[in-house]
Design goal:
This protein has 269 residues and is mainly beta. It has three helices and 13 strands; from the N terminus they run αβββαβββββββαβββ. Strands 1, 2, 3, 4, 5, 6, 7, 8, 9, 10, 11, 12 and 13 form a 13-stranded antiparallel beta sheet that branches.
């Protein structure tokens, strides 16, 4: 799949999806505030994060999906702008433009704690998009601990991707192309520390599934056909409408110190 205008089409597609659902008029008043510590909670929200790579902005809007006992929301995130002025990462070269954006559509069945998610992330720096569909299931609480397993699959689209290496030279697949598919398996986990403080550990294992031989062997770095991503978060609920959270994202290839760190404020409305 090649298209020299895909760089324009992808943001336009996300904007269209958002305009049709996430930001549709919702005249129904919320009856009660949702538990912001619940990974499956659905609510309208606004968030801003200060990271080692700049500022992030997040906007989410809940909506009625028209299915009984089902709640839904869309979330749009813009990441990494003003990185040159306020970022402090030692491992990436910062600039003030947006590094990436992300769109998520999330639905959850309130009767069985089962959710599904469409996740589209576009990295402007590498001109790469990843789109995945996954299922999430809430398991029964075990004391202060609860687990939410995740299983899904996705596709990678890239501009001027490396198709192969011949005689030591890179062969470029010019324009935008679907370089391959991948699987994702992991979980969200929540540990309740106090009524207002909780801890999350969210590991995700990604593995190349199909595509060019180069993609299958090097989807996550030279010689890496898979990767284990780690996310840890410590959160404090200021009041029923707002919280402050610290996140760290790293992997089996990038250690905790060199990973991405951010402090995020979220408000439920």
């Amino acid at each position: 799949m090649k298209n020299s205008s895909l760089k324009v089409i992808l943001p336009a597609l996300v904007a269209a999806l958002v305009s049709q659902t996430a930001f549709a008029a919702d005249t129904a008043e919320e009856k009660e505030l949702q538990d912001m510590s619940d990974p499956l909670a659905v609510f309208s929200q606004f968030g801003v994060g200060y990271t080692d790579r700049g500022l992030n902005i997040k906007y989410g809007k809940s909506y009625d999906p028209g299915v009984e006992n089902t709640m839904a929301m869309n979330i749009v995130e813009l990441k990494g702008f003003l990185g040159e002025d306020i970022g402090f990462s030692q491992i990436v070269e910062e600039d003030n433009s947006i590094d990436s954006f992300r769109f998520r559509n999330f639905k959850v069945d309130m009767t069985n704690g089962r959710g599904n998610q469409i996740d589209i992330a576009y990295d402007i720096e590498t001109d790469t998009a990843n789109a995945s569909y996954s299922f999430i299931q809430a398991l029964p609480k075990w004391g202060r601990v609860q687990f939410f397993p995740i299983l899904g699959a996705g596709v990678t689209i890239q501009n001027d991707a490396i198709d192969s290496i011949e005689n030591g030279e890179k062969v470029i697949d010019e324009g935008y192309s679907m370089t391959g598919t991948y699987t994702v398996a992991g979980m969200y986990s929540k540990v309740t520390i106090t009524d207002n403080i909780w801890f999350n550990y969210n590991p995700m294992f990604l593995s190349s599934l199909s595509g060019s031989d180069f993609y299958k062997d090097n989807a996550y770095g030279m010689g890496n056909s898979d990767i284990l991503l780690h996310e840890v978060a410590l959160s404090y609920q200021i009041n029923p409408r707002s919280n402050v959270r610290y996140f760290a994202n790293f992997s089996d290839e990038v250690n905790y110190k060199d990973g991405e760190h951010r402090i995020e404020y979220n408000y439920q409305f």
